[in-house]
């Protein structure tokens, strides 16, 4: 199964919803965590790869604030599914890294579109309502709009219950 799924959520407790959806793909779970601060970013080739808990489930994890398309592709080589946590955080990091370079920013967004189109593994994108600047919110909405068009399913978990907006819920393997 190589579905792409977008989960729209509020701040909490989206982790359990994302983990639940991810577990439907299989046992080998990957996580790209975008929450790392720019000052803590590792040098090229130095992504942290370790096991981490997300919503009560253990994932093989990369900390990657910018180059998430490459991180997803790398994890896709050995994971049944990869969760990208979280689009708002990624939007914030992209604007920090490329404040005046629309070409570089578009290239990183395009890399995720390519991963979505390639269907290398199941991909669960998490998008939530978090605080941010107007520019961060605008980029976050752009990411949601662009990626939702290529996702097989969209799930709204923002109202306290999980509702399928489009597509089908993945079946457990």
Q: Would you kindly provide a brief summary of this structure?
A:
The protein has 173 residues and is an alpha/beta fold. The protein has 5 helices and 8 strands.
Rg, Å, rounded: 15 Å
Beta-strand content: 25-35%
CATH superfamily: P-loop containing nucleotide triphosphate hydrolases
Compute the average pLDDT: 88
CATH fold descriptor: Rossmann fold
How would you classify the helix and strand content by structural class?
Answer: alpha/beta
Give a quick account of the main beta sheet: strands, pairing sense, barrel closure: 8 strands, mixed
Widest sheet, order of strands: 3-4-2-5-6-1-7-8
The helix tally amounts to: 5
Quick one: how many beta strands?
8
Q: How are helices and strands ordered from N to C?
A: EHEEEHEHHEHEE
Kindly report how far apart the N and C termini lie: 9 Å
Percent range of helical residues: 25-40%
The CATH architecture: 3-Layer(aba) Sandwich
Shape: globular
CATH C-level label: Alpha Beta
Supply the number of structural domains: 1
Uncertain stretches: none
What does this structure look like?
- The N and C termini lie close together (9 Å).
- The radius of gyration is 15 Å and the shape is globular.
- Helix content is 36%, strand content 26%.
- An 8-stranded mixed sheet has the order 3-4-2-5-6-1-7-8.
- The chain is of the alpha/beta class and 173 residues long.
- The protein has one domain: P-loop containing nucleotide triphosphate hydrolases (Rossmann fold), CATH 3.40.50.
Characteristic key phrases:
173 residues, eight-stranded mixed beta sheet, Rossmann fold, alpha/beta, single chain
């Amino acid at each position: 199964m190589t579905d792409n799924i977008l989960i729209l959520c509020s701040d909490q407790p989206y982790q359990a919803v994302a983990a639940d959806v991810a577990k439907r793909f299989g046992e080998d779970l990957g996580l790209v965590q975008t929450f790392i601060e720019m000052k803590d970013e590792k040098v090229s080739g130095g992504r942290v790869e370790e096991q981490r808990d997300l919503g009560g489930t253990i994932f093989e994890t990369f900390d990657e604030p910018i180059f998430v398309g490459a991180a997803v592709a790398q994890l896709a080589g050995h994971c049944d599914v990869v969760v990208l946590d979280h689009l708002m955080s990624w939007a914030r990091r992209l604007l920090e890294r490329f404040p005046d370079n629309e070409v570089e920013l578009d290239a990183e967004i395009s890399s995720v579109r390519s991963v979505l189109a390639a269907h290398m593994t199941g991909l669960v994108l998490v998008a939530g309502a978090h605080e941010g600047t107007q520019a961060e919110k605008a980029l976050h909405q752009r990411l949601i709009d662009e990626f939702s068009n290529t996702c097989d399913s969209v799930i709204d978990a923002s109202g306290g219950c999980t509702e399928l907006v489009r597509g089908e819920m993945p079946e457990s393997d």
